[in-house]
Design brief:
seven-stranded antiparallel β-sheet; alpha+beta; globular; single chain
């Protein structure tokens, strides 16, 4: 089951999120990978709890909460704070299954994650009148998948999990 959610962010919200992300400090993405995922995860991410992580994370959580499609498809009891990943120069996250139990870095609370949602922000070059807002893809967390490898452009995505 793959559900897409168009227009989670408006064009202005995409611009605001991208501005925050450009200013962020990016670290090795393997710091949050489980034992098996560390073998295939090659990307950068924003440190959990950083000011940018909190600001853009709040934007994402609000966007999901006001999306009738997300709310009716996910029926979320709780949405885990999003993570922000960046891929460039051949980076990828190999074939993997998302971690089913995640721990909130701020509170230490552990939650089971039934659904994974990936928010794609268009690049400045790809933003046109027809492609000016974000799109989100949602699938069961237990799905095995491999994101594309990005060679020529920097691809920034946000991943959120819900129970």
């Amino acid at each position: 089951m793959l559900i897409t959610i168009p227009n989670l962010f408006t064009k202005d919200q995409v611009a605001e999120a991208r501005q925050h992300l450009r200013a962020a400090e990016w670290i090795d993405g393997r710091v949050t990978a489980g034992y098996q995922a560390q073998e295939v995860k090659r990307n950068a991410q924003i440190a959990e709890g950083s000011p940018v992580h909190q600001a853009v994370g709040e934007m994402v959580l609000k966007g999901l909460a006001r999306s009738p499609r997300f709310m009716s498809a996910a029926l979320p009891l709780r949405v885990f704070p999003p993570m922000f990943n960046s891929y460039a120069g051949g980076q990828t996250f190999g074939t993997h299954v998302d971690t089913a139990i995640r721990q909130d870095a701020r509170t230490g609370q552990r939650i089971r994650t039934d659904l994974s949602a990936t928010l794609f922000l268009p690049t400045r070059k790809s933003m046109t009148a027809a492609n000016s807002s974000s799109r989100t893809a949602m699938a069961p967390t237990a799905s095995s998948f491999q994101p594309a490898t990005w060679y020529f452009i920097r691809r920034r995505v946000c991943i959120a999990w819900s129970r």
